[in-house]
Amino acid sequence: MLRLDNIRVDNGGFFLDADLGVEPGASVAVIGPSGAGKSTLLGAIAGFHPVVRGRILWGGTDITHDTPGQRPVAMLFQDGNLFPHLTVSQNVGLGIRPDLRLNVAEEDRVRDALLRVGLRTLGERKPAALSGGQQSRAALARVLVQKRPLLLLDEPFAALGPALKAEMLDLVAALAREAKATLLMVSHDPNDARRIAEQVILVAEGRAEEPAPTEELLDNPPPALRDYLG
Amino acid sequence: MKHLTFAAGVLCATGAFAQTPELTVYTYDSFVSDWGPGPQIEKAFEATCGCDLKFVTAGDGAALMARIRLEGERTGADVVLGLDTNLTAAARATNLFAPSGVEADYALPIEWSDDTFVPYDWGYFAFVHNTKLEHVPQDFLELARSDLKIIIQDPRSSTPGLGLLLWVKAAYGDQAEQVWKDLADNIVTVTKGWSEAYGLFLEGEADMVLSYTTSPAYHVIAESDTTKEAAAFDEGHYMQIEVAARLASSKQPELAQQFLQFITTDAFQSVIPTTNWMYPAVMPEGGLPEGFNDLVEPRNSLLIPEAEAEAVRDTALAEWLSALSQ
Amino acid sequence: MAFGAQPVRTWPGLAAAALVAAVMLAALVAVALRAETGAGLGAQDWSAIRFTVLQAALSALFSVALAIPVARALARRSFPGRGLLITLLGAPFILPVIVAVLGLLTVFGRGGWLNALLGLAGLPPVSIYGLHGVVLAHVFFNLPLATRLILQGWQEIPAERFRLAAQLGAGPREIWRLLERPMLARTAPGVAALIFAICLTSFAVALTLGGGPKATTIELAIYQAFRFDFDLGRSALLALVQIVLTLAAATLALGVSARGGFGAGLDRVVQRWDARTPGLRALDAGLILAAALFLLAPLAAIAAAGLPGLLHLPEQVYMACLVSVFVAAVSTILLLCLALPIALAAARMPLVEQAGLLGLAVSPLVLGAGLFLLINPVASPFALALPVTALVNALMALPFALRILTPKAREEVDRHARLAATLNMGAWGFFRLVLLPRMRPQIGFAAGLAAALSMGDLGVIALFADPETATLPLQIYRLMAAYRMEAASGAALLLLILSVTAFWLCDRGGRHAAP
């Protein structure tokens, strides 16, 4: 259970308030107008923006002041998810040991993860030699080995084509289900939300609302969301 | 940590050789270079003293003086070798030096009766030129009237530069500033030190360069090159006498005194002409080497007495700066 | 990024910067405290300050103004020998002053090549002596550095931006406005400040080519105060003036060069779609050729003068080579130990870089005297000659290293810190796995510069010189003092070869391993 206990987040002078909870294993889309604070919400959970009020709880434990690396969080950003100078295998290996001193069993885990995302033969390549979709898969393979219970996606697939994006979202959903992970995903596209999220957090006017069932919310949007959906 | 180990190593090393007394001589850098007098003199003295002669260097005479002043009474030097007559007044004023107790039959153009500073070589400042130069000027006024180009050294950073300053002052007194004004259009440039100036001259940047009357001897002896010559000026030539002295704080006073005495002997003096390219202060038994005999002999030796040198120096520098800054 | 665990620690850099500042200031204070008389600054000193600022400002201005078109030409052209040319162009910067001045005069002097050519064409000779000569020499020394630093700025514009610009149909002018001018606004002021600082302490060049006491710089005034008047108070005061001027220039430059972001881009080969017209090609070729001629002709003169002596050098010269190589290696390692942490700290706090600039701002003479006063009571300066030389050489190279390393460090931290933080890499892991490999070209360049500078620098060793272990530059001076100009020229050529080789090895090592 992720609980944002009446928090206020400071993102360089922009403030976001949230008071909500997310059930374990839930898949939740975060939607709202541009600039409303979707990325800020995820950034706060991941530990990139200071929380000036309230607490963030994970399974009852206060993680408000944990460093990003200490949190139970794996996160994918809009870009820069891979180190360009490391091979795909090394990039994935970072998810197991950040110092890359992997033993044989750990290297096997890297290979398994690459196999799972469909990059079995591309482990020795550098990211620049991969297509956009392959780069996303490589990043997902790392999320897989990270085994964090909370997965945050800040539009990592925004640059991909619709078919490819759908394919990635399905893969994410599948991986999250397998790992029983909680998924929070920023999205601009209500169809993405319908596709893999059973709940939606609406972020508008500096405030993040409690998760609501996806179909219900999208079929009967409140005014703020209606303006956004057009 | 490494430094500590290193320092400890040095301490142990000095400890181990403590039975051999060590004489530390501060001198200028070119003296100890492999082409200078240092190595031969070290060998010769160590053969007689049963001691270890150690040279410590500073850039040139003035740097040497600065170092002694920085160290003051804690100085590690037993002997300082390489001050000249422009520095002896300042050196004496520090009260760091002890009487030498040395007497010798000096071959200097002037009477020497200093009880502290022992001269070891000397020379005349002069303008050196190529022998094919026509109408070599006979004095500063003629040089100033000519359109010959000269390179000189800055008196603030170089010993010969200071020598030239005092040369003009000694020869022309109150007229010195006017002489400098007249020379201004002859001066190609002013360099930091002797090496730069002489290098530029050899590159052909000027007709004449401020150096010593003994400079052509190097070219004759070492390179069999007779194309360099020093111009004899009618005003006379300013002298540089290089001296050594022992420190009052020395823990080896006898040894230091022995070294000062050694300076006046053949073993030291015979090395000087072809390594330091100066005249020896005491004529060696074998006389001067071939090549020194054909050098220009000034009719007149100029030297401002030590007591006046400092005051004259400051006035002369101010005149020089004002004349050449216009 | 203002919150959360940073994969970069600033305290090692702050500590290193504090150490550097402490060494410099302690030396200055040691000299000031030892002062007996204090005459204050006289009219002559003020005129020296004015001249120093004037020549340094002009030198910085011309170096940067000329470096921009040359760097642009090099950035958008590839031709055989480009890498070698870039390496060779760095050579003037690392030459000992006296060698470089003699080389310059062979080309531009009264009896030099240029005047011989003018004479053939029936034109009157030109004189190099004067303010213009000082500026010319400083441009000769610093144009290569400025070009390299600005070229680096060009190469740090992500390829994607050029692609985007090409896609938008932007021509050279639009690219200039969109990409190049903002990049220069960030890069050029820092480079200018650096060159200004270098030229502030210039002394032998300014004096020799300035043509006389009109060209008195602060450093020469310090020389006079120190050795002519033995007025330690005034030398410390003048040294302080140098520091204030340098830091003022640096503050101004850092203030002007607002920190702009080009964001992240993947590493692809930089390709340009603009500037394919014959006119621009000819312009670039002309610029590259002119710069090469200007910088390489004096080097050729040095080589020509040195070749006869190179073949029969005295054995002491080879011994001195070994000493110099050893000192250069030690100071390069020391430099990296100081520069890398400081660059990382400066990536977060730009002001930290200023501590490094002290290495340029403190008069070598005063630094040497100060260290001597500090060390002499506790240990023999003699025994510490080599460590002190290595340290001082490292300090002198520090500002250059920081200018090279800091922008890249900042970019890497901006790009990858977030990801590293979610992966819990830690400061050491981030340094080892991301910064070191990502910054290899810059580290190689900085190390090469440090090695070469250290090889050619006479530095402050005068007071620490151990006559037994002379370095190569010292040996060159000794040969000259012993009238052995031919051997000195040979040794100078050897030094040039050693310096360029050291630079080339490090620089190439860095660039070749780059992803």
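Residues 283 and 310 of chain C are 38 Å apart (CA to CA).
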